[in-house]
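Extended Data, panel c. Modelled sequence:
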Amino acid sequence: MDGVIEDWSFPRAFNLASDPKERWNIIWQNSWIGDEIGAFIAAYGASVRQYPNVASGQPNEPPPRHGAGNVVADEGKPQHG
């Protein structure tokens, strides 16, 4: 919170057990990490494109419910709280 704003446009990895303040980027010594997490990063990117994150400062309201308790799904019956 009170640190310097940094450019995080390239991958970083930290050993939180030995470096809980995330001071030392170990990605270069552990290049295998990129191969392991590449699919997860791609899936996250696709997810954010389909379901964008809530913009900063906007209310974080729950998405509409589908199924039991939903007025549309229950053909006009009131929702149960």
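The CA atoms of residues 9 and 41 lie 13 Å apart. This feature is highlighted in the accompanying rendering.
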